[in-house]
Design goal:
The structure is a homotetramer of 365-residue chains. With 365 residues, chain A is α+β, with helices and mostly antiparallel strands. Helices cover 24% and strands 21% of the residues of chain A. At the A-B interface, strand 1, helix 2, helix 5, strand 11 and helix 6 of A face strand 1, helix 2, helix 5, strand 11 and helix 6 of B.
Chain lengths: 365, 365, 365, 365
C-alpha cells in the first residue's frame, strides 16, 4: 500500500534513491523458461540513459544492470527476478541552503508534508532516476509479450510545436535525439531546445506510445480496464500531467457517427476496423487494433531562473537550481512510456491466460 | 484481479448487469462510528439518476438504495457495507438481431472476444448503470472525508463548445441540467443538444472536478501517486478517453518558469501557492491546494444513424440503436467523477493515517 | 485490507450480520462459460444449514441462495457473481443486559476494543452465519475444479474421542449427523453429545478434509505456499484454533527417514509416492498426492453454565447464554472446511494457468 | 500473485536463491522517522545464522546485511527499504546425478512439475536460506512495534521429547544452542541430537512464539483474522506442517467451560483474563493477552540414509544427501517464527491505525 509496486500477475517493486548506493527492483510473476540475460534488459536501459545527447542531463551513469536472481542457465525459473544498478555518479556535495528549501514544482514540499523527513540529495526517491527500473522491468515484460507484439514510442510535441502526422516515419524515430518521427520537426526542435537551454529555462512535451499485434480480449471490464491501468501507469511517471487513449480529449468534440469505429470483414476473413478513434480499447478491453496512448510531460522544474519559494522554517526565499538538468524531461520519458505500456500488456496477458478464455476473437462465420 | 474492486484501504466491489434483478456493491474498510443511513447515499444517487431531464436517458429508475449490512443504530460498525439497488425498469424485449451484432463503439465485440459469451441485454455489465454504484460508494467516501473537504464537479465543454472561465459561478452548476458553471454556455448547450438529439446523433464532453480542503501529504510517491490513482479512477468510468491534472496537456506548452507554482507565506502563516498549474499534486502527493482533475467523455455510441459493423458469425451488417439514449453521456458523468475523486481521497486519507506521519504540513517557523 | 475478501484470482468478498436483513457475497474471477445455477450452490448450503439435527443449532433458516449477477442463460459470463441469502429467522428480542456484556470466549470484547461499537444481535458480523457464504463461494470454486478433483471432509474427533482409522468408510460420512467416517465412533458421539447438551455444556472437534485428483504444480513457493494459504483459509473459520497438513504436529516426532515420502514409478508410468506424510504438498506446491488438511475447532463458547465476565462499563458480571446453540460447532465446520479447500485450490489452479507452465508433471522417460 | 511478498500495509518482498550472488528483500510501508541502521537488523540475523553450533548446518555465512535504500541520516524516510546479503559460501561443485533426481521430502519434484525447470544448486529458491530475509524484515517490524511489545520464541519439543512447562525459564532460552526454556530438556536434547547426527538421520521439532504487550484490537474479523494471518505466516516457513493458537488442537478436547477464558477487573482497573486458552485472540482480534503461537517443523529431509526416489527421466534411483545439513531444522526456525510474528503484528498495527479507531480498549467504568 506504500505504492512502490505495480501490476497484478506481472508485478514489480522498485527501490532506491538518486544518491543512495544503488537502485533496483524485484519483478515477480515472470513465467518460467523465458530466455533472459542482462543484455535483454540493458538494451532498453541504454535508450533511456542520461548523458547521451546535449539535450538530456549530463549526469553520466553507465546504468549497468545486474540480474541477481530468478534465472538459471539463461532461462527464467519462475522465481522473482531481482535487478540492481549501482549509482556511480552521485557527485556528493554540500547541499547548503537547498536542503531546507522547497524547489517550486518539485516534490520537496509534499515529501516534507507527508513524511516529516526527506532525503534531499538529488531528489531522493522522487528523482526521475526511479524510472530506470521501469525500463528494466519493461524489458522483462517484452519477453512475455513475445515478438508478435511490438511497441514504439515517439515524441510528438515539444512546447507548442507539434509534428505533422503526414510526415510520420517510424524509422526516423531512432535517428534523432528526440525520438521524433517527423524529421522536419526534429530539426526545428534542435533549435528550440538550444534556445531553451541558453535561457536556463525548460519546456514540456507530449509522447505517443503504440502497441501493435495486441490480441483482442486483454483488460478487465470495470476498474482494471486496460485503459484505466494504462492511465495509471503513465500518470505515475514523474512529471506527467495528462493521459489520453485514442482520440482522447478530441473525442469530446466528435459526433457519435465520427467517433464509433465501424467494422467490416477484412480480406483475411478477420474483423476489420475502419478507423481507430478508440485507440484499440472498447469497454476497457483490447479490440485487436493498435493500442494508442498519449501523455503530456510538464517542463523540468529545475531551472536556472530564480523563483520565489519558502523553506521548511517558514522563511520566504528565492530558489534557482543550477546544474545538469534536462531542458525537456519529456525526451527521456519516451522509453519509460514504452516500458509502462509493455508492463501493463504483459500483466493483462497473464490475467487473460488465467481465465482460460478460449477464443481470443469471436467465432466468426 | 478480475477488476471489479477499486481502492486499497477504502475498497469497494461492484456487481450487477443492466437488466439483471439488481446492482450492488460492497464497501470494505469503512471506519467505525460514522453516521450513515440511506439518505446519505440517496442524495448523491439522485443527482446521477437518469430520466431527470430531456437530455439524459429516459429509462426511469427510482434507483432506491438499500443498506444491507455494516451499520447499527445509524452508525457504521467497521463491517463491510453492502448496498443494493433493484433494477425496476428493465423493459424486457425481443433483442432480435442485435444480440449477435457488435454495435460500433460499444464493448459488444471485445466482451465476446474476451469471454466467448456476453449478456447483450442493455449492455450487461458494460452498461453505464454500473456507475450508480460508484456514486453510492462515493457517498460513503464523503463521510470519511468529512465536511472540511468539499468536492464539486462541472461540465466545462460539450462538443467543441467550452465555457468561459471568467463566467464561472459555482452556484450556477446546480441550476441547469448540465452541471454547467457558465450560465451563457448552458443556454447555448440547450440548443446544441436539442439539435444533436433531433439528428439522432450524440456528442462528447469534458468534465472538471475539484476538491478543496484536502490536506497536504496524501498520495504515495511511486506507483500509487495520488494523480496516478485519480487517472485510473476517471479512466475507468465508461466512455472516458482522457484525464488531466492541473494544467494537463497544456503543461507541455508552458515554460518551466510558468509551470512551477511559486510559494510565499500567507497571512495566516501557512504556505501559500501563487498559482496552481500542478492541480494540487506534486510528486504524486497532495500539496494542500485544490485538487483539479479533468476528463473527456466520448459521444454516446448508441445512435440512430445506421453504422457499418459485423455480427458474431462474420456477417457484415448495418446497426442502428433506437431507444432511450443520452445524447451526451458526459452530463451524467459529472456526479460519477465527483464520486471517484471522493473515493480516491478517502482511500489515501486512510493510508496516510496508517503511516502515523504526524505533521500534515511542514514544521514552519 | 479490512479483510472481508479472500483469494487472489478467484476472490470473494462476504458481507452481512447475523440479524441484519441478509448476508451475501460477491465472487470475482469466475471464468466464463461455466454452467452455474442456484441448485449448484444450494446443494452445498443444505449440508451446512442449521436446524438439521438435534446436534446443531435450532435456528431455522431455509438459507435459500439467489444469484443476482454474473450468469446468463445458465452460464457464467466472467462478470462478478453476487449471491444473497435473506435472513429469515432473526427472532428479534430484548437483548437486555447481554448487549453490554462480554461473553467469555466470544468476540464481544475484542470487537468493542477494535471498533468502539458492536452489533450485539446474534453475534453480528462475528456470527458463524458468515460461513454460509464460504460454502456458497465454495460451490462456485468446485465448478472451476471440475469433476476430476474431489473433496471430502469428515469429523475425526469430538472432545477426546477419536475415530479409528481402520474403520474409515467414506460412505458412512453421509449417513450420520456428524460427517463421521467411523460408524462406531458416530454411535459413541451420539451419546456423548446428548450428555454434553444435557449439561448445558459444549465440546470441541477435529475435522479432516481431503482433496483427490489435484494436479502437481499448484501453489507458490514462498509466502503463498499452497499449505500457507490453506492454513489461513482454515484458521479464518470461526472457532478454529489449529491447522495441520499431512502428518502435521506428528511430523515433529518422526525421523527424516520416516517422514520423507519415497517415490517409485507406478504401473501407469507415472510418479508414485509410497506414503503421504507431506499431505500432498512439498515446498508449498502440490505433488499430485491427496491434499490432507486437519483443523481443530474449540467448543462452542455459548453455554448455559454461568461464567464470570465484565461489561463495557467495567462491572464484573456473570454471563450465561441460553438459547439454541450447537453443543459442538465443529460438526457444521465440515462443509465449511470443504468449501475453503475448494476455494484455495480453485484460486491456485487459475494462478497456475496464468503461468502457462506447460508440464503439470515432470517430463518422464 | 507469484507469492514472494507478504503483508498488507507492512509488506515485504524477498528474492534470491541459495547459490546465486545474493539474497535480498524490499520492505515497503515502513513509517518515516524510525531510527534504523544495519545493526538493528544484524542482531536478529546473527541469531539465525548457520554454523553457530554443531547442531546447525556448517555452511559458514557471515550473513552481513546491507541497507541500500529507505533511510537517511539514521532514520527511515517512508521510502522502501532494500536489504541485501551477499552469498559468500556457495561452494560451487559438481552436482552430478543429483541435479536430475528428486530428493524425497524436498521441493525438487514439485518445482519441476510447476515450472518445468529448476535451479538445483543448494535447493535454489526453496532453500531455507530464504528465511534469513524474513528475519531481516522482522527486525524492521520490531522497530514499528516499539519496546512495549516483546516477542520471544522457544523450542519446546524435539522429536517426541517435550519440555516440562514447570521448568520454563525465559533466561535459559538464550543460554543453550536450542532456544530451550527448560535446562533439563536442553541437556537431554544435546545427547538426543548427537545420536541423530551420528545415525545420519534427522528429527522434527515444535516451536512456541509469544508476544506480550500487544494492545487489544489488532486483526480483521473475517479472512484477515490475526490468527489466520499468523497461521499463514508460520505455515509459509519452510518445513512447517502445523500451526496452533493458544490451546490449539487441545481445544478440541476441552469443554466450553474450560475453554472460555473468564474475565474480571484487575487491580489496575483494566480487564483481566483468568486464563488464556484463546492465545490472546478472540474472533480474529487481539484481546490484550499474550499472543501464543505454536508450530511444528518436520525433520530435515536431507539425510545420509539412502532413500528410494525417481529422476526427471523416469528412472528409479536411490538418493542420499551427504553434506552439511541441520539434524533438526526446527532449531533455526525459532528466530524465523519470532520474525514472522513481529511482521504480522506490525502489519495489523498499521491497519488499525488507519481505522483511526479511538479506543484500544473498551470504555470501562
Amino acid at each position: 500500500m506504500a505504492g512502490n509496486s505495480f501490476g497484478g500477475l506481472f508485478r514489480f517493486t522498485t527501490w532506491g534513491e538518486s544518491h543512495g548506493p544503488a537502485i533496483g527492483c524485484v519483478v515477480d510473476g515472470v513465467p518460467p523458461r523465458l530466455p533472459l540475460a542482462e543484455p535483454d534488459i540493458q538494451r532498453w536501459l541504454d535508450r533511456r540513459r542520461p548523458g547521451q545527447s546535449k539535450f538530456t542531463t549530463q549526469r553520466r551513469e553507465p546504468d549497468q544492470v545486474r540480474i541477481l536472481s530468478g534465472t538459471f542457465e539463461g532461462l527464467t525459473t519462475g522465481a522473482p527476478v531481482a535487478l540492481v544498478i549501482d549509482n556511480v555518479d552521485q557527485r556528493s556535495k554540500d547541499y547548503g541552503a537547498i536542503k531546507d528549501q522547497f524547489r517550486p514544482g518539485h516534490a520537496d514540499f509534499t515529501y516534507q508534508a507527508k513524511y516529516g523527513i526527506r532525503d534531499y540529495r538529488g531528489g531522493g526517491r522522487a528523482s526521475a532516476r526511479e524510472t530506470a527500473m521501469r525500463v528494466a522491468a519493461g524489458g522483462i515484460a517484452r519477453k512475455i509479450l513475445g515478438d508478435a507484439i511490438t511497441i514504439q514510442g515517439a515524441l510528438i510535441q515539444i512546447g507548442a510545436d507539434r509534428i505533422e502526422r503526414a510526415n510520420w516515419d517510424g524509422n526516423e524515430v531512432e535517428r534523432n535525439p528526440f525520438w521524433c518521427p517527423d524529421a522536419k520537426a526534429a530539426a526545428r526542435w534542435e533549435a528550440l531546445l538550444m534556445d531553451v537551454r541558453k535561457r536556463g529555462s525548460s519546456v514540456g512535451a507530449v509522447i505517443e506510445v503504440l502497441a501493435s499485434g495486441v490480441p483482442a480480449g486483454l483488460g478487465e471490464p470495470a476498474y482494471d480496464k486496460l485503459d484505466a491501468d494504462l492511465a495509471k501507469a503513465m500518470m505515475s511517471i514523474n512529471a506527467v500531467k495528462g493521459v489520453e487513449i485514442g482520440a482522447g480529449f478530441k473525442a469530446a468534440e466528435l459526433s457519435g457517427e465520427e467517433n464509433a469505429d465501424e467494422m467490416r470483414i477484412g480480406n483475411d476473413g478477420r474483423p476489420l476496423f475502419l478507423s481507430n478513434q478508440a485507440g484499440g480499447i472498447l469497454g476497457g478491453i483490447s479490440s485487436g487494433q493498435d493500442i494508442v496512448v498519449r501523455f503530456a510531460v510538464k517542463p523540468t522544474s529545475s531551472i536556472l531562473t530564480p523563483r520565489r519559494s519558502i523553506d521548511r522554517f517558514g522563511n520566504e526565499v528565492l530558489v534557482s537550481t543550477p546544474g545538469r538538468h534536462d531542458p525537456c524531461v519529456g525526451i527521456r520519458a519516451v522509453p519509460v512510456g514504452e516500458a509502462m505500456l509493455a508492463i501493463v500488456l504483459a500483466d493483462h496477458l497473464l490475467r487473460q491466460r488465467a481465465l482460460g478464455a478460449g477464443p481470443a476473437a469471436p467465432e466468426l462465420g
